[in-house]
Write a structure and sequence with these properties.
By secondary structure, this protein is mainly alpha-helical. It is built from 45 helices and two strands.
């Protein structure tokens, strides 16, 4: 059977799968035919196919040639004895012989074909078989490959890589050649490398690194007529670093020991002709070299730890002599990187191409270097300078590769978190080219991403220590910007950055961070916020304020974290403050008066008693109550240290609640629930994340919980405080009504007018939304009136300012002795400085000048105080906008409290009391997000409430109370539908909310008394009749659809 020639065409296919199938089919046909003629044709055809210019054809033909050659040489049948490795090499050299008439492209195809032919021999593994490969064949193969590497500079690296593969495979245990032959072959390779002048080149380094380290010096010593070479026959022996640096950046290296004639005769033509962005493969071998030496060092260290010698004099002498004789002679990563990389590739005058290689080498080392400790040596000063410069601007030549380096840093940190502390420290180390604001100048988030890497508690502890060290260093080296004021100092920005990163470290690692690390950070903030240490410079007022803010933020984040000693974090911080107050090394910056000292002392006593009660009580519910009071007392007392004006009042209210809750004698006039709710409202009314979390914690774990009788501590009076906020208008009037009271709402007539105008404008806006008609004329009139009012306000403001300026001028004239008219105007024209000796500056002495200066300062200060108290038009508008935003903010917090209550008590009948206030607020608010949030609370949370008879009996034990409660629910349904019918909703959400509220109330009312179903149907029937007969009815049909669907579900 003849072998099909189609197989050869298919070997050149672009599809890898087709090439594999073609090679398999060809070999099967050849074995089946077993014709010498076919085998020889296949060998010659495949060899000729290697010199094609098509890359895919080379792959296919070399793959088939590997199998054919292996089959031919392993044949033991008669007629095939002549086909040996020598025969194949001769045939290969003959087929790939160069001709003078060849063009450059043809030469390239022929030479790559020869290289592929030599690679085929390695792939067959015949060279490593002692029976199939003679000694002469090995040396012939070596000469062929070395000679090929010197024909063209662009082919040298690829050819040496093939030689590297041969050396590794030849020296492996899989090769069955004798050790003497292996040594002879390696010596021959080194000899040919020396003769060709490749010793001090990147390819020469690759050849030497292919040889096991323990054999390099011994084998290199057999080189005859040695040219410029490595000391001790090993490129990584100390003393070779300068030569290694030149060799690895492809610079011609002259023999430092050779004479002038020898240097002239050794002009190295081995430099590459063109630069390639791909770094040579020798860098992979270099990394392997460092990784191997690192592993051997670890093994030797472990062995040395196991061997413990006696401490007599003789052993000491032996130990000293052995240590002195066995000093490390190998190049370390630190030494290699400094000389070979940092001073060469990242030097200031290095080309962009060389720096590009430097970034690629950095990426390779960072990803593949196994020694974690050695990573720090990669971030050298020159590298950091190049990295920062190239990433800072997008138009830089190496911006793309530098940003790639930052990306690899982030990815490597995420895959190997143990590298994070080292990398982080080097990036912010200003002594080594780093910067504390590295992310800012590189326009990246590298440093922040390192802090958010998910690692273990040890990594977090290391990062914490680095940041605290950065804080202390900046504090110790700071200077005053001005000599008098200490509000700002030179390193304030760096110190603030350290505080921000400490906060970020805690926030992103709350679940795994160690309690000791949190303690160290909070202690640092407490010391800088409240105390001055005699061992450390004092921070500026700017930083002190930042420390206070970060302390509040951290306390807000860790407020619900539990400690092993069962005390709250707030109390821990407070105890540390008390401890520092007793220390002589720290001076308290907070100066309390006698009243505050008494309050502090009484509160500390209460906290100690709470701590003692928590240790002896066994009831978990009581422990939760004590924990809430401990948290409240501690946090409020810390706020008092921070200068909070309301802290004293809150502590007094807390004392009433605490005594009423845990004392045997309770005051019936004190409603603990109401008082605590008022405290919570005062917390959430302020834009403080700490107070918000504190309020939510106490609300959830104490106020919304059950008392000993099983009833909820929260009552309708407490909830009414929340509902009052929802009922309030979202303007200045509503804010004043809630926070200032009736008597303090109005400051003067202008404010009263502004309030009335604002009220009228709100009513007009609401009426405009309630109407469907487009009253463009009335809108124009209103806008004209508004403009007139604005003009009047501006005129009034100008008159006030003119009056103030007039009074100020009179005071200044009186102080300076300048004459004035009867009208009060200053008569500057009457002044004659030349005639009036009283106004000569020489007539006043220093004391009079100082007195005059104080008097003028007082006049200008009085003017500034008056101006600050005047409510100008712009100021009033700002106050109105601020009041509106604050009311919307406050109502959002109230909805959060109601949602928490619903989560804790999902089936409490108190949930139904929130329906009316929520619906009123939905119809009242002009803020879309607030209305959606309220509707969502009603639709998804309160809608699931299912009250029970047992729950109702707790609150309404008598029949009359129970009946009144049921009737109140029925009345609420009527009121909601009446509201829907009487006026149009401001939004579709209000109509839907009313529909859903009616269903919620009906569902719960029927659940406790099914007899009320008929009454509910009558209410809906009345509304339906009204809707059908009254065309002006504003009820939406969806009200009845929802009711019918609910009735259908109950049938």
């Amino acid at each position: 059977m003849a072998v099909s020639k189609d197989h050869y065409y298919r070997l050149a296919s672009e599809v890898p799968k087709e090439r594999i199938e073609a090679a398999t089919s060809l070999l099967s046909d050849l074995i089946e035919a077993n014709s010498k003629e076919d085998w020889e044709y296949a060998l010659n055809r495949l060899l000729k196919g290697l010199i094609t210019s098509r890359q895919s054809a080379r792959f296919g033909f070399s793959m088939a040639l590997t199998e054919v050659l292996l089959e031919l040489i392993n044949k033991n049948s008669e007629g095939y004895e002549e086909i040996t490795i020598d025969y194949y090499l001769d045939l290969l050299l003959k087929t790939t012989q160069l001709a003078s008439s060849m063009k450059g492209k043809e030469e390239r195809s022929v030479l790559f074909g020869r290289l592929f032919g030599l690679q085929v021999l390695i792939n067959t593994k015949l060279l490593f078989n002692a029976e199939a490969c003679k000694d002469e064949s090995l040396f012939k193969f070596i000469n062929c490959i070395i000679e090929l590497s010197n024909l063209k500079s662009w082919l040298r690296e690829t050819t040496i890589f093939t030689l590297h593969q041969f050396i590794r495979a030849f020296l492996s245990p899989a090769s069955d050649h004798s050790k003497d032959l292996k040594d002879k072959v390696i010596i021959a390779i080194l000899q040919v490398t020396n003769d060709q002048g490749l010793n001090l080149s990147s390819e020469g380094v690759a050849i030497y690194l292919s040889i096991p380290k323990e054999n390099r010096s011994k084998l290199a010593s057999h080189i005859v007529n040695e040219k410029a070479n490595w000391k001790n026959g090993d490129p990584f022996t100390k003393g070779n670093l300068p030569l290694l640096a030149k060799a690895l950046k492809d610079v011609e290296v002259a023999d430092p020991e050779a004479g002038e004639n020898k240097q002239k005769g050794n002009k190295n033509p081995k430099q590459k002709g063109s630069w390639s962005p791909r770094i040579p493969f020798v860098w992979d071998l270099i990394i392997q070299e460092f990784n191997t030496s690192n592993e051997s060092e670890e093994v030797s260290n472990e062995n040395s730890k196991k061997r413990k010698k006696s401490s007599n004099n003789d052993s000491k002498k032996k130990k000293h002599s052995s240590s002195s004789s066995s000093e490390p002679t190998d190049v370390t990563v630190q030494e290699f990187w400094k000389v070979v990389i940092d001073d060469s590739f990242y030097a200031e005058k290095s080309s962009h191409e060389r720096k590009f290689w430097g970034f690629e080498i950095f990426i390779k080392f960072l990803k593949e270097l196994t020694s974690i400790e050695s990573i720090q040596y990669l971030f050298t000063s020159n590298f950091m300078r190049c990295l920062v410069n190239q990433t800072s601007q997008a138009n830089r030549m190496l911006h793309k590769i530098s940003t790639k380096a930052l990306k690899v840093i982030t990815e490597e940190a995420q895959s190997n978190p143990e590298k994070v502390p080292i990398i982080f420290n080097r990036l912010i180390d200003e002594t080594n080219g780093g910067s504390w604001n590295f992310d800012l100048i590189t326009k990246s988030k590298t440093v922040d991403s390192l802090l958010t890497v998910k690692g273990d508690d040890k990594i977090i502890a290391d990062l914490k220590n680095i940041l605290i060290q950065s804080f202390n260093t900046a504090l110790d080296t700071q200077e005053d910007i001005d000599n008098q004021n200490t509000n700002k100092k030179s390193n304030d920005n760096k110190i603030k950055w350290s505080l921000d990163k400490l906060l970020l470290l805690i926030r992103r690692n709350l679940t795994i961070i160690n309690a000791k690390d949190i303690e160290d950070i909070t202690k640092l903030l407490i010391r800088q916020t409240f105390f001055h240490s005699s061992d450390q410079p004092q921070v500026s007022e700017n930083v002190k304020s930042a420390c206070q803010e970060r302390l509040n933020s951290i306390l807000a984040d860790i407020i619900n974290l539990k400690r092993s000693d069962n005390i709250s974090w707030a109390y821990y911080c407070l105890k540390y403050i008390f401890k520092l107050e007793e220390s002589s090394k720290f001076k308290n910056l907070i100066d309390f008066d006698e009243e505050l000292l008494v309050i502090k002392q009484e509160t500390s006593v209460i906290l100690k008693s709470i701590s003692e009660l928590m240790t002896i009580t066994k009831s978990e519910s009581k422990k939760d109550q004590l924990h809430c009071f401990e948290l409240l007392y501690s946090m409020v007392l810390i706020q008092m240290y921070m200068g909070d004006d309301e802290a004293v009042q809150v502590i007094g209210e807390l004392n009433l609640c605490y005594e009423n809750t845990f004392s045997d004698e309770t005051d019936d006039g004190v409603d603990t629930s109401v008082v605590l709710t008022e405290i919570i409202l005062s917390f959430i009314s302020r834009k403080s994340n700490l107070l918000k979390k504190l309020a939510f914690t106490v609300w959830e774990f104490f106020v919304c919980g059950n008392d000993q009788s099983g009833k909820i501590r929260l009552n309708e009076a407490s909830l009414q405080l929340l509902y009052d906020v929802l009922y309030s208008k979202e303007n200045k009037e509503g804010q004043q009504k809630l926070f200032e009271g009736e008597d303090e709402m109005v400051a003067d007539d202008d404010e009263d007018e502004e309030k009335d105008n604002e009220k009228d404008e709100d009513e007009e806006d609401k009426d405009d939304e309630d109407e469907d008609e487009d009253n463009s004329d009335s809108d124009d009139e209103e806008s004209e009136e508004s403009e007139e009012e604005d003009e009047e306000e501006v005129a009034t403001d100008k008159d006030k300012l003119s009056e103030i300026d007039k009074e100020t001028n009179l005071k200044l004239a009186k102080a300076l002795g300048i004459p004035t008219a009867e009208s009060g105007e200053v008569k500057f024209e009457d002044l004659d400085s030349s005639d009036d000796e009283e106004y000569e500056s020489d007539s006043m002495d220093d004391e009079q000048m100082m007195a005059m200066d104080d008097q003028l300062s007082k006049i200008f200060k009085e003017r500034q105080d008056i101006l600050s108290n005047i409510s100008t038009g712009n100021k009033r508008k700002a106050e109105v906008m601020e009041a509106k935003e604050h009311m919307i903010f406050f109502k959002n917090r109230i909805l959060d409290l109601l949602e928490i209550f619903n989560r804790v008590q999902p089936n409490s009948l108190l949930n139904l009391t929130a329906i009316k206030p929520i619906i009123t607020m939905i119809n009242l608010t002009l803020n879309k997000e607030l209305g959606v949030k309220a509707h969502k609370l009603l639709k998804t949370k309160i809608n699931r409430t299912k009250i029970t008879d047992e729950d109702v009996q707790k609150y309404y034990p008598s029949k009359k109370e129970l009946k009144d409660y049921k009737e109140s629910l029925l009345t609420l349904i009527i009121d909601l539908q009446t509201e829907l019918n009487s006026k149009k909703s401001t939004s579709q959400g209000h109509s839907l909310a009313c529909n859903q509220a009616c269903i919620i109330i009906s569902k719960n009312l029927v659940a406790i008394d099914t007899s009320y179903l008929e009454n509910i149907i009558e209410i809906y029937s009345s509304s339906l009749k009204n809707w059908a007969l009254n065309p002006k009815s504003n009820i939406q049909p969806s009200l009845f659809f929802d009711f019918i669907n609910w009735l259908n579900s109950k049938r």
